[in-house]
Specification:
This protein has about 475 residues and is of the alpha/beta class. It has 3 domains: about 5-40 and about 100-150 and about 275-360, FAD/NAD(P)-binding domain (3-Layer(bba) Sandwich), CATH 3.50.50.60; about 160-275, FAD/NAD(P)-binding domain; about 370-479, FAD/NAD-linked reductase, C-terminal dimerisation domain (Enolase-like, domain 1, 2-Layer Sandwich). It is built from 15 helices and 21 strands. The strands form 5 sheets. Strands 1, 2, 3, 4, 5, 6 and 16 form a 7-stranded mixed sheet that branches. A 5-stranded antiparallel sheet has the order 17-18-21-20-19, with helices on both faces. Helix 3 packs across helix 7. The structure holds flavin-adenine dinucleotide and nicotinamide-adenine-dinucleotide.
Amino acid sequence: MNDTSRTYDVVVIGAGPVGENVADRTRAAGLSTVIVESELLGGECSYWACEPSKALLRPVLARADARRVPGLRKAVEGPLDVPAVLAHRDDIVFHWHDEDQVAWLDSIDVALVRGHGRLDGPRQVVVTTPDGDTVRLSARHAVAVCTGTGAALPDIPGLAEARPWTSREITSAKAVPGRLVVVGGGVVAVEMATAWRALGSEVTMLVRGSGLLPGREPFAGELVAEGLREAGVDLRLGTAVASVARDGGPDGEVRVTLGDGDQLVADEILFAVGRAPRTEDIGLETVGLTPGDWLKVDPTFRVSAVEDGWLYAVGDVNHIVLMTHQGKYQARIAGAVIGARANGEPVDESRWGRHVATADSEAVPQVVFTDPEVATVGLTAQEAEREGRRVRVVDNDFRSVAGAVQYAEGFRGQARMVVDLDRGTVVGATFVGPGVAELLYSATVAVVSEVPVERLWHAVPAFPTVSEVWLRLLETYRG
Ligand SMILES: Cc1cc2nc3c(=O)[nH]c(=O)nc-3n(C[C@H](O)[C@H](O)[C@H](O)COP(=O)(O)OP(=O)(O)OC[C@H]3O[C@@H](n4cnc5c(N)ncnc54)[C@H](O)[C@@H]3O)c2cc1C
Ligand SMILES: NC(=O)c1ccc[n+]([C@@H]2O[C@H](COP(=O)([O-])OP(=O)(O)OC[C@H]3O[C@@H](n4cnc5c(N)ncnc54)[C@H](O)[C@@H]3O)[C@@H](O)[C@H]2O)c1
């Protein structure tokens, strides 16, 4: 067993999309930087989350769109080519290898230590390498924890022994389960039910709440529920799981007992009920924090409870927004602020300033890749009202949009714009319908730039595009 010690300006623990971006930015600020990774560079997103799930969904949504185009429908009537879809997913995740990411890290001159990193007191990180060696890393300026999350599993009798699937197994599955039970009504649940139903599974969704996609405009969950049911998903709302058992050997069936005593049998059961921080075993106790907790940070991503401001937590692990693009946004800002502090430069903490992630609270965009797609940014009507804002909620059906009618026969969808009447700006938008994902950036720019609604009249959408929904929303607002 070998022990070595090295000193860098910055130590980053976790090379997911967020850790990689923190390292990129601290290196760009002239700071020597090392990153520690226990599995694959690229993290959950690249291998078991965003990338594989979207590779599975792309053919599903493209086929659904094509089936809405007269003249094309017949050409796409058949089933998906499952081996080709799975092979494409495998290509997208680089067959679970990370050589390309290593080459990129080399190209930006960031050092890599493979192994499990743990804090060991202020500014110290100890890495246990796969060979059992120990590498001690000291940070002159900052340690950034970017260890992300894993799937959360509820405490349900029999669950652990039943070997449930989580986001990892569902995104990397090598074959289509004949009967799949999906527990949960959030983003992972609706996306994976959409994908695997289209790939051939009989899907039953067990949703504890009264609707899908809680926290968004209610019509989003309703339209997605309609789409899933039309696709043949057995969607059961208000349904709790009481216990789970797997009969027989490893290939045995899963028996699910519901809250009302009913039972159902499946080949696999996916639990998609949220995330837990990967902080159980990262030495938090050595710096006065509690293992297993989310890491609470100040507006510049410093862990608030730790003295001297050397510990940062960025991305999923700080529980602010659990999405790759927003985590990378945080990473760019955290990297810049670590650089500014180390180089003795001023820190700009003003609203929309260089060193504060203002969009985390004002304008988080998200696309849910279901049929129909759901694209949201900013506040929902309910959130705006809860904040005490005086708002006007403007709704429009896409059927009045010529571009939508061209895009898909019988285009079904809805748009909502939330206008802050005191500021005269759009503070939230939701689009639901086929292909609406690409509308979202326009709404994000409108919210972030605080464009007066009066000026939006001069942003003319081309005819005939789906973007003309903006014009319909403005016309409805004007009355
Ligand atoms: C099924 C699914 C689909 C998703 N789809 C999308 C999507 O379409 N769009 C989107 O924006 N978001 C999506 N997300 C969310 C997205 O995956 C996360 O927000 C993102 O991965 C967070 O990045 P991160 O770098 O903070 O953490 P992670 O990606 O979890 O990376 C953390 C890294 O740290 C490493 N690590 C952990 N502990 C240690 C340690 N002690 N020592 C060394 N290394 C360690 C891990 O191995 C990992 O590589 C999805 C999530 C799921 C589950
Ligand atoms: N397209 C995307 O942007 C995308 C895709 C997938 C995941 N993600 C991110 O990943 C994160 C995790 O997604 P997720 O779907 O696991 O979590 P989620 O928080 O979106 O949804 C979890 C759902 O499970 C339900 N639930 C919680 N505990 C339960 C229990 N014991 N029994 C039954 N239901 C229970 C909740 O009510 C909720 O509806 C999200 O924050 C999401 O933003 C993003």
